Amino acid sequence: MRTCSKCRRENPDDCTWCPECGTTQRVRKGSPAELIERVVDRDSFIEFARALAEEREEAEQMERDEPARYQLDGAQDWKNGCISSFLYASLAYFDAKPYHMPESTPSWRMIAELLYCGKIYE
Questions:
Q1: Are residues 45 and 82 in the same domain?
Q2: What is the pTM of this model?
Q3: 47, 75: one domain
Q4: DSSP letter string over the chain?
Q5: What range does the domain containing 38 cover?
Q6: Which tens digits make up the pLDDT trace of 43-77?
Q7: In terms of domains, do 16 and 61 share one?
């Protein structure tokens, strides 16, 4: 089931518009968490980045609709809603950690991971 980003109605996954409010539903090939695993080139990176942007846009609408619910944490697991906190969290990608060492040569996947860190790191 897909939740309408405007009225929050649950609609079937194959629904392209919401019968309740008429909002056109965006159809993505996956969530950013799923798509990041498939980033290998420019096109797959663009698909990932578009899904990340659309997800943030949906989360912003949810946060506007129910501000009290999202006071402590953002909708759809977004930890950083403003650009500065997003960028600082993205930079955490380069912090040396025992389980992660960034590549020395940039790749499309590396850039996708850097952006994804902006969503999930606090």
A1: yes
A2: 0.74
A3: yes
A4: -EE-TTT--EE-TT-SB-TTT-PBPP--SS-HHHHGGG--SHHHHHHHHHHHHHHHHHHHHHHHH-TTTTSSS-GGG----SHHHHHHHHHGGGS-BTTB---SS--HHHHHHHHHHHHH--
A5: 31-120
A6: 999 999 999 999 999 999 999 999 999 988 899 99
A7: no
